[in-house]
């Protein structure tokens, strides 16, 4: 379309140029003829006249020259007027057509408007040309009269008359040509419009007739076709053709309705300017070492600078661009090489494009029919993640951050232990206990608040000097709670703690959870979350020394238990517990509702065989409550921060034991630099239904069972969320662009930089490491100003050191050169220290050297 319009413009310009050239040639010819005659008259007069005659000749010559000048001026005016009129016609037509096309996409309206414009402009052109021609003739006649009256020379009169005749002929020819051209154009346009309208009407009538015929044919098919008598398995004619055929009426009226604002030239220009600003100001300048990582302003001042007011009138595009520029100017540049503040840093160009594309598509990833591409990509990514972790059956979804993943873990643990909580709620549940180390992420606290489990039920486990959970203390606290009648539910291990970056021993913790049948969850305050669903297969259990069931309602009594090979059989509604392969933890619940007590289907009326003598104990009046932790062990690890090591061949050993776990929440926006937020929650679920059983609501307006495609691709019922952002594309784009090797290289580079900086701090005066070595890319240290170096490290000294970090951070922010977080750690008795996070793949050894130098420059005199 653009090329066609461009060709039309070229044709018009060429035509105008040709007309102008012809007119100029005519004028030049006339001038030459006139000048020639003037010369002849003048020369002849001087040769044949006396001296008394010379003055008269001079006067006549002057008159002739004036006539020639008038003719030239009039000719130029005619040319200029014609050119101006043609240009105005072209501009008006183009503007009107563009405006009409933008305002209305109806082709009939566009054609009618164009015809009206062409006719009006044609009339104007004819009028202008005729008026100009008349003016020229009048001027020439006046000049002729003056010359004839004042001239006594017959030769001069002849010259003037010749000039007048030639000029009149030229004017008449121009007028005739213009009128003919205008008439032809108008006739052609009118004919074309009439043809288009007639064709359009014929098409509409034909389509309506075809629709009527098609409807009649379908009605006949419905009447004649008998599904009951058709055993051939052939597809119904309606399904085969009619229902898969788009109505022709759609194509007839496809141009009706308002056009998209994204086709508006002004909006397109705004988008171009906005994307250019994002590319230049945010991405390029925001990652340039020469620019500040932040231009810090106090909140009140920043609110004034940003001009946050929204008025009644709409803002102009220039105002919006100016607002964008200010937002970029005063925002923190997390892709800057000086940003070490949080557990995310760096910008990846490919994932940025994925994020933009995702936003432009604006799809909610809950059903396949609205997000087909995203659903397919998400399935693939989770399969790839499952292979890395070692999960045999991977399933999951992206959720809004690692804290949300942590809450999902608690939710899944509670559901698997007490599935009746979906209907009955928390009423009647025993007191549950959650275990976590003193170095764990605070999101566990939020999780128990959100799920109503109570913060008093969080049991804090001690950690060693490196920040790793003490497995011996974990086992001790579990035993104590069992003795006091609590129900241990959940262990929160850590793979890459928030502060020290420590990795808990997943293998050892998993053994404890297996022994005591607990749900193991590893919280790493950032990037991988591993969870295991309960295996709900029937198992066989035996009680060795049972004199009578426990009589205290809702109180579990430990009889004796040990791990043995499973042996089970199910008969109808009965679950038979045979032989003595497993000694179970069980309880008799007197008077408890069947649907609450019956954790294993068919438990009511179960026949319990115990001992080797084959004596049977039949419990028909009481309900046996089998604590589900003895059915199978569940293991979870949350590794949102340290999980990136799974991408590295060199450092993946830090997550040893991940194959023993059952789900993972992996924050790629932390370890891999994918845009915030990209948090994946992956479950190893052989049943492939656990997420749906725990979270589904089966909303009929979304999840119809009789859809025209495989409804298992509808992912919305796997999560408590309905609206969910499609985060997969930005990760898939990055991973596809870099490959497995490139993703792993990011992790390796971060570790290399962290090791270099650690060694540098060990040998640089003024730096004191909190730990001698760090397992992740966190580095915790104190900066010691000059006045405190070499002094005794007593209580007063540490008090002064604690004041350094806040003051130095303030200087750092005002300078805009770096951003590094600081904190105290009261559980370890540590005063304020800096925690630098090394993630950005742009960093090198020179950047690590700059950190050392900048600390000395900003803090030596504190």
Automatic annotation (TrEMBL):
GO terms for cellular component: cytoplasm. GO terms for biological process: carboxylic acid metabolic process. It comes from the Eukaryota. Keywords: Decarboxylase, Lyase, Membrane, Pyridoxal phosphate, Transmembrane, Transmembrane helix. Its cofactor is pyridoxal 5'-phosphate. The keyword Membrane applies. GO terms for molecular function: carboxy-lyase activity; pyridoxal phosphate binding. SUPFAM superfamilies: PLP-dependent transferases. The chain crosses the membrane at residues 12-35, 56-77, 83-103, 110-143, 155-179, 186-210. Belongs to the group II decarboxylase family. This is Cysteine sulfinic acid decarboxylase. It comes from Elysia marginata.
